[in-house]
Structure formats: structure tokens, C-alpha cells
Amino acid sequence: MSEPTPPVPRSVSDPVPDLPVIAEDQKSEASTIYSHYRSGLSRHRTQMSDHRTDLSENRTEMSMRRTGMSIHRTRMSADRTMMSEIRTALSLIGFGFTLYEAFRSLDKSGMLENSPSPRNFGLILILLGVAILLGGIWRHVQFAQELRRTRKTMMAEGLVHGESTYPVSISLIVSIGLMLVGMAAAANIIFGISLFG
Fold first, then answer.
1. What is the C-alpha separation between 76 and 12, in angstroms, rounded?
2. How many C-beta atoms lie closer than 10 Å to residue 125's C-beta?
3. Residue 165, domain member (yes or no)
4. Tens digit of pLDDT at every position of the chain (197 positions)
5. How far apart are CA 170 and CA 124, in angstroms?
6. Which long-range contacts (CB under 8 A, 24 or more apart) does 131-139 make?
7. Between the CA of residue 51 and those of 8, 9, 43, 128, 138, what are the distances in Å?
8. Residue 103 domain-assigned (yes or no)
């Protein structure tokens, strides 16, 4: 990302000219002296106006950068939301599968009678985890597309620079992978397909 060259500030070193004092012998030249004084004030005003223009350009540049950074902060916030959905789904999927496997092992050892309740409860937890991931992925993709459209519109209007790249969301990739793992765990329970060993 290349940094733009900041504008060279114009000089405002000329002080405001002092009010001329007209001596007795200069009364006939007073209008000319005051005219020169007004010209000096006008030059000073022009310098101040140029300086204000430079400051305004700097403020506009800074505003564009802040807006661009706020778009990235919004995107990172969406990633954090996706990560919290991943944590919740992982807890549900992991707990559901562990519950199912624990009761299946107890059933195989003959310690418990065959009951579908633990199987069904574990399956429901896994499916809830997958549903959270499906909803989170859908919302994340929809929000990311809307944010990209907004960014492109703002770039076209010259409101943001758009020099930085818009990277792929790692949390989205992880959530898709976890959703596939959850679906495999559900298939293991429903169809007895041993995908995990």
C-alpha cells in the first residue's frame, strides 16, 4: 500500500502589517499609504485562505482514511461474530457427539439398557450446532457482500481510497469446515456410518 504524498503547506509567515502612522508632512500621500496598507492586508488574507485550503485538503484526506479503516473494523467485527458462532456450534456438536458415544459405550458394555433418548438428545445438539453454523454462514456472506458493495460505491465516489486489499475471511472457511464435521457426526448417528474411525 503506497502512502500518498502530503501536500506541501503554503507559507503563512508574513505577519499582519502594522497600521501605518501618517506624519504631518505625509498627509497629502495618506491615501496612497493606506492603499498600500490595504494591498498588504489583501495579500495576507490570500495567504490565510490558501493555508485554510491546505488544511481542508488534509482533513479530507484524513477523513477518507478514517472511513476506509472503519470499513475494515466493521469487517473484523463480522469475523468476531462468526468466531463466536463457531465456538457455540463447536460446543453443541462436541457435547452432542460425546454424549452419544458415552451412552453407546455404556450400552455395548451392558451397563445400561438400550434407550433411544441419549442418541436422540445427542443428535439434536449436533443438528442445533449445524443450524447455528448455517445461519451464521448465510448472515456472514450476506453482510460481507453488502459491505463490499458499499466500499466499491464509496471508492467510485472518491470517499475512500481502497488501496488495501479485502482478504478472504478465515473464520468463514473454518465455519464451513466445522459444519461439514457436524454433518458427518450426524450421519454417523443417523445411518451408523463410521466416519471418525
1. 43
2. 22
3. yes
4. 445 555 545 555 566 667 677 777 776 777 777 777 777 777 777 777 776 776 666 666 666 666 667 777 888 899 999 999 999 999 999 999 999 888 888 877 777 777 777 888 999 999 999 999 999 999 999 999 998 888 888 888 877 766 667 778 899 999 999 999 999 999 988 887 766 55
5. 27
6. 132/85, 132/88, 132/89, 132/92, 133/85, 133/86, 133/89, 133/175, 133/178, 133/179, 133/182, 134/179, 135/85, 136/81, 136/82, 136/85, 136/86, 136/89, 136/175, 137/82, 137/172, 137/175, 137/176, 137/179
7. 10, 7, 12, 62, 50
8. yes
Is 28 inside any structural domain? no
Residue 131 lies in a domain: yes
Pick the closest to residue 72 from 80, 62, 84, 83 (CA basis).
Answer: 80
- The count of domains in the chain is 1
Put residue 162 in one of left, alpha, beta given phi > 0 → left and psi -120 to 50 → alpha.
left
Domain that holds residue 152: 68-191
Q: What length does the chain have? A: 197
The verdict on pTM exceeding 0.85 is: no
